[in-house]
Every structure is written in structure tokens, then in C-alpha cells.
Amino acid sequence: MSSGAGPFKRRDTVDRTVVEEVARLLATAQSALFITGAGLSADSGLPTYRGVGGLYDRHDPELGMPIEALLSGDMMARRPELVWKHLHDMELACRTAAPNRGHEILALLEERIPRVVVFTQNVDGFHRMAGSKNVIAIHGDLHDLRCTRCDWRTTVRDYATLTFPPRCPRCAAVVRPDVVLFGEPLPEAPFQRFEAEVARGFDVVFSIGTSALFPYVARPVLLAKAERRPTVEINPSRTDLSDVVDLRLAAGARQALRAIWIALKGKNPKPTRLGR
User: Fold this and answer.
1) To 5 degrees, how large is the angle CA 113–CA 132–CA 123?
2) From the candidates 86, 103, 127, 139, which is the catalytic residue?
């Protein structure tokens, strides 16, 4: 980082005292929960829209409809071609981006802490791409497709070879991404898994790049606070959790996680299996 004077001098916005305290917590933690939102993928170039999985929030200029109506389960049943138009736009944004260092560091932490759970609202699949294994993608993943009629499923790298709306090779029904659209309930299996993990408890709970508007996102932080377990927020903007957490880093996710990782390696020099 440049130390030069004048208008081009870069300012370090990460509170080093807080970074050291967070690194100290992680150095001794046996378990950690990382709740992530659109702010983490923003450092990969994705927009921090609040819509499906934190990727989309605008009006269709042609139809004049809000995205909540277009990206809904009801619209998928009635006009799947309209839904797929916007899903394709979302996938294109993901395709031209990639996991950033923040995603990578969360994957590395799985190698250092015995039990790590990443609970993400994002549908971009970047945690999985970065190497995290214990990921609960509560809103699903754009790359996981399923038939709307039979039990056919597949995972694709991108949508480049798809026709829209795609059809099931088994029964010819419309195929959709296995994501939660507006007006649809959360999938039961991942939510039950998440509830079971929260019931086990964590030594430290992080909220990273999320406004935590949904109760199921804020609840683990509030529960940990009530149980006097350390809580950490990483977000450049203030949220409803900002006055609740024990430690707060008002910085971007990638920048803060990189600083924490460097500090952690200094406290615990044991190398990871990934050799980073």
C-alpha cells in the first residue's frame, strides 16, 4: 500500500485493533459460522441487489414490472420464458465474474478450524467454486437445474448451451434453476440442516456483507449474543445488527477477510493443507 502524500494516498479503512481481536478468536475457535450476503460477491463485480439471493432488484423497462413479479414462482408457472430472460442475465453476470479472495479465505478457514459452516444467501455458487465444502446455500444455486415435473436434475457450468426456456430431456417439461423465487418458501432440507447446525452452537458467528433483513439470517447472531458467544459483523454500511455484535469491521468483505487471514497466520503459523 502506498505511503505517499497528497491526494493519491490510500487510506487503510480496516481497524487493525478489531482485526487482531477477530484473529485471536479464530485462532482458538473449534467452530465458526459465516453468514454471507451480496456484499461478499460485490468484490467479484456482482451488483449488490437485494433480490433473489442478493443479485437483482430493478424494473423490466419493456414490461414495466418489478423484478419481484417477474422473478416469482407464479410467473415461472405462467410465463417461464420471461423468468428465464432475467435468470439468464443473472447467470451472465456470474459467468463474467469469479470468486474473490474473501471466498477463498473462507474456504481456507475450513482447513484450520475443525467445524466451519458457510450459510449464504447468494445464488452465484462462488463459495463452492472457491473450495468451501460445508456450504448451506439457503436460496439455492443458479447452476443447479431441476425439472418442474419429474425428478430430473443436473448441474451446469453456465447457460451457454441452453435454449430458453430449457426443457427436460426425460419428460419435456420446463426446467428451472433450483433457486428460491419470489413468493416461494425456503427449501425444507437445507433450512432444517441450518437449524440443526445452529442448535449445536458455534464458538464465533460472523455476518458478512449482508443487511440481515430476513429473520432466519439475523437469528443465529442474536442467539449467539444471548449465549455470550462472540459475534462479528463485516459490512461497510451499518445494519440492524451493527449495534448488536461484539466486533464490527466497517470495511468491504474481501479487504477485511484478507486482513484477518494475515493476522491469523501470524498468530497460528501452522500451514494449511492447501499450502496458502
Assistant:
1) 135
2) 139
